[in-house]
Amino acid sequence: MAFYPSISVLTSVYQGDDYLTQFFLNLRNQTIFPELELVLVLNEPSADEKKVAKDFQLRAPDQVQILFAHDRETLGSSWNRAWKASRAPYVTMWNVDDRRVVDSLQRQLSAMEENPEWSLCYGDYLTVSEYGKEQGIHRFTLPYKLANFRRYFAQGGAFWLFKKSISGIIGFFDEQFMVGPDMDLSLRMAVRGLEMGKCDGLLGHFTDASVGLSTRDGAHRSAIERTVIQLRYGVFDKVNYELLEQTKEYRVDSIKQSTSWIPLSTYLPDLNSYISSRKPLWILGVIRIWFRAAMKRLGLLDYLHRAQNKYLKREI
Q1: b (16+ CB within 10 A) / e for 73-90
Q2: Among 159, 184, 207, which residue terminates a domain?
Q3: Rounded CA gap, 38 and 230, in Å?
Q4: pTM of the model
Q5: Lowest mean pLDDT among 5-9, 92-96, 136-140
Q6: How far is 126 from 240, CA to CA, in rounded Å?
Q7: What is the pLDDT of residues 130-155, one digit of tens each?
Q8: What are the two backbone dihedrals, phi and then psi, of residue 67, each rounded to the nearest 5 degrees?
Q9: Phi (first) and psi of residue 189, to 5 degrees
């Protein structure tokens, strides 16, 4: 009898020997595991990674696809290959150095089925400094509001569940991005006006360490990609002027898909008028830079950030 999964898990691995065994254990412990499919992309895999992955596939052959990238590819490229190979109506990205609460996917799937207008479901998570830690910083995600989600990465990307079919509306991940393809897709969804919703309860533990798979390329690469995305979607008041020169290596107006370049306007036909309406934010950006510099000189910037995290629980 053919296996029809409810959820496809998209996982890209690069130098993940230290995490792969525990990742498979966490995956198998999911309450919805009998309905899951894993699409695993191994980038320049070691012999141990191949063996551990193959052993897991042999235990659940109908539920595991293994794809290979013999030369390391961008995160967006790996996720796209997995997304296109997936068989379920819902998909989620799952990094091997992150851990999910065992019923999180079950809860998210129920929330999506109860709210068919949602294209994506997200929720709260803990940021931990080391894999396996149970204590960390609680990342509170806000109820969906279009204006907020068009300005920043409000729901994180580590614990999404979304409809596979949204690729027909907004396209796939932009393969230019090594670190931030999920942030780009998030803002693209918001600018297109797709509905998203929050799942109740904690979803998982996001490992944010200097050697983490999601952060290994460092804060500088992440900052450059974030600036490109802000330019792309008109978040001009948050643009870091010092990084503008380095953004020129990216194509802001096009999305890379394999060897093709797709104009962003293909998915956002009103993008030009949308961007034009947001140009006054450049002025707000200058004021923001001046204010931050003044707060830093007075030694108050850290206090401001802590107050923002405590009382607003979001960027401003």
Answers
A1: bbbbbbbbbbbeebebeb
A2: 207
A3: 32
A4: 0.91
A5: 136-140
A6: 27
A7: 998 989 999 999 999 999 999 999 89
A8: -115, 155
A9: -60, -45
- Residue 1 inside a domain? The answer is no
234 shares a domain with 198: no
Scan for tokens 């950006």, then name that residue.
285
Domain boundary among 151, 181, 207: 207
Label residue 217 exposed, middle or buried (CB < 10 Å: 0-12, 13-18, 19+): middle
102-to-3, 28, 61, 88, 195 alpha-carbon distances in Å:
22, 9, 22, 19, 26
**Distance (Å, rounded) from C-alpha 252 to C-alpha 250?**
6
> Do 267 and 286 fall into the same domain?
yes
Task: Give the pLDDT confidence of 236-282 residue by residue, as tens digits.
Answer: 999 998 999 999 999 999 999 999 999 999 999 999 999 999 999 88
- The residue segments making up the domain with residue 263 are 218-312
Whether 68 maps to a domain, the answer reads: yes
Contact 29, 58 (CB under 8 A): no
Residue 2 lies in a domain: no
